[in-house]
Amino acid sequence: MKRTAQAVWSGGLKDGKGVLTTPSGVLQNTPYSFHTRFEDGHGTNPEELIAAAHAGCFTMALSAIIEGMALVPEKISTQATLTMERIAEAWTITAIHLHVKARVADDDRENFLEAARKAETGCPVSRVLKAAISMDVEMEEAVVL
Question: Would 89 be classed as within a structural domain?
Answer without folding.
Answer: yes
